Amino acid sequence: RLYQYPISQTMRIRIYIPLCFLFGFFIATQNTAQAQDVHFSQFFEAPLLRNPSLAGLFQGDVRIQGVYRSQWASVSTPYETGSFNFDFKKPIGNGGDFISTGLQMLYDKAGSAALTTLSAMPAFNYHKALSGDKSKYLSLGFMGGLVQRRFDRSKITTNNHYDGNGYNPSLPDGETFTNSNYSYLDGSVGISYSSSINEDRPNDNYFVGVAYHHFNKPKNSFYKNPDVELQSKIVFSGGVKFTLNETSFFTIQADYSKQGSYTELIGGALYSYKMGEDIDNPKYTLHLGGFVRAKDAFIPVVKIDYHPLSFSFSYDANVSQLRTASQGRGGMELSISYIGFFDRDNSSKYVPLCPKF
Question: How far apart are CA 154 and CA 6, in angstroms?
């Protein structure tokens, strides 16, 4: 992740001593991988960060998901990132439409200076039924809320701390900003189209979508510089799920992101196998597969569903030119999710065709 936090030429935040090399190396050797926003290898477990229109695109009434990521522990003080989101949907009217509401919360802490981002963003989504025969839906979603960023000024080192003989922490750092934290409002909008592939196989479906994040271009500077803005990001997403036989299916997902001059492409697949006597409602489902972040990492994934819960583990095996310094170790991720139905007459459990993936 590259952050747009302008600092004067004299400031040297300790976290950046190893990471400036890391990020500079990425920029010099490729124009992909590290964009300004946080990212997850299990991007499919943080759908609202991909596109707010993906709220409610699941087989159930309510979904709760959490993801934890630790990255670059082999190179420096690790980046730690956590995501928590929940969303639920309900039918509206008699035309097959649905509405979804939810909340996306994010925590990110980087390096020894504890550069921290906290955000809380409510989301709203409307799913418009386009056809009854193939469960075609057009979804429009909005997400927006408050973001707060801060770092520990006592843990930074600048040129002003050197008195000619060595490092002197009692000297002022020489920086002109007055606050080591600031807040701003942020917003995202997205649209997606989802459909079953064949009316005879309603569980085979796909979706495509595009999202526009930071459309309000919030100010992004500890110096309150009005000319420094958080760059907008556009994300193209897609996925397809198709049945292989009565006990197994295959899922492919991918995202392409562009934020300023930085891009990221990630995609891959999971093979899933149902276990238990009731194949239509299996007690366990095992998912195995892998994803690739272009020019950056190969990511093996293991996931198991113990309905209504799911548990996933993945690990970034670094394959970029940084692999010599990182020894191939990128970051691990853990996730847990819950998907369930409400005990109500208008539950989507009793609706044959509803937006899901």
Answer: 18
Given a cut of 80, whether residue 29 has pLDDT beyond it is no
Instruction: List the one residue out of 144, 238, 123 whose CA is nearest residue 192.
Output: 238
Contact predicate 62/340, CB 8 Å: yes
Give residue 178's region: left, alpha or beta (phi > 0; psi -120 to 50).
alpha
Beta-ladder partners of 262: 259
The predicted pLDDT at position 76 comes to 65
Higher pLDDT, 153 or 134: 153
Question: Which H or E run contains 325?
Answer: helix 323-326
For residues 35 and 37, give the distance between their C-alpha atoms in angstroms, rounded to a whole number: 6
Dist. CA 341–CA 187, nearest whole Å: 29
Tokens of 83: 């995501």
b/e per residue 16-50 (b: at least 16 CB within 10 A): bebbeebbeebeeebebbbbbbbbbbbbbbbbbbb
Three-class secondary structure of residue 156 per DSSP: coil
The string of pLDDT tens digits covering residues 328-339 is 566 899 999 999
Higher pLDDT, residue 230 or 67: 67
Higher pLDDT, 188 or 75: 188
> Which two tokens mark 60?
């159930």
Show the tokens assigned to 131: 């056809």
CA 139/CA 151 separation, integer angstroms: 38
Cross-strand partners of 339: 63
Please say whether the beta carbons of 348 and 341 come within 8 A. yes
CA distance 173 to 120: 32
- Separation of CA 72 from chain center: 17
DSSP code of residue 232? P
C-alpha to C-alpha distance for 55 and 142, rounded to whole angstroms: 10
The tens digit of pLDDT for each residue in 267-309 reads 999 999 999 888 888 889 999 999 999 988 999 999 999 989 9
Which positions ≥6 away from 150 have C-beta within 8 Å? 114, 115, 116, 180, 181, 182
Cα 41 to its chain centre, rounded Å, is 8
